[in-house]
Amino acid sequence: MAFLRPVNPSADTPALDHVFRVTAGPAFKSEPATTIGSNMFCHPYPFLAPDTCFVLDSGSGEAVGYILGTPDTTDFARRWRVDFTKTLDQKPPQGMRRPPDYDAEGIARPKAEEDFPAHLLDLLYNRPEDLLNLNVPMLGKRYAAHFHVDILPSHQRQGWGRKMVELMLDSLKAKGAKSVFLGMEAANESAGKFYDAMGFSMLLKVLDESANGEKGETNGGGNGTIFLIKDL
Question: Which residues form the N-acetyltransferase domain (predicted)?
Fold first, then answer.
């Protein structure tokens, strides 16, 4: 019988990669984007924030889903630069070569639409702050914590998503987080209804913290992404 448990950073890594490969969007379905994506969205969290990382265990020790987060995104990005990128250099898999420091060398950054893998590597090694959406107003300050969750199709629509999010919110709160955010595809109506039922709302662009009563417009991260927020 399936159950939730803390992540095992070493033993669970292959399963986390598998869940990512199966559930990732079309842009990450081919190599080297798949491997780079796993190193962006799976590997840093058990390494840097194991206390707020959990897996859905099939009952036989295999992770069939994960929810990975951190109570402090800004500090997470700092430690990503200082500590996590060192692990990438130790034994880089195919397609994971370290990119140049574009700013220091005066080289134009690769654009996602022109060289997607090179763009991902730039984010992974050079710009974790942008990858973690810290360039969006209020994220990382007003809403410090964040998480993301993926579950294999075999275990979806069984109530595990709610249980995993509830566990994550309790864990983030226990770590001192006052609020949390996550990114979601704007077109994902089912996920939108799910998070709405769990008390999340859209992060809005406003000029004066809504002092004038206006709600503002949807705050997106590009590529059809919107941000959802919740106070803890």
Answer: 64-232
Span 115-138, mean pLDDT?
Answer: 94
The strand pair at 217-218 and 220-222 is best described as unpaired
What's the distance, CA 147 to chain centroid?
A: 6
203 closest CA partner among 214, 217, 186, 189: 217
Q: Per CATH, is 3-177 categorized as 3.40.630.30? A: yes
CB distance 202 to 228 below 8 Å: yes
CA–CA dist 52, 229 (Å, integer): 18
| Cα 125 to Cα 59: distance, rounded to the nearest angstrom | 36
Structure tokens at 136: 């969006």
pTM equals: 0.91
pLDDT greater than 50 at residue 78: yes
The residue ranges of every structural domain in the chain are: 3-177
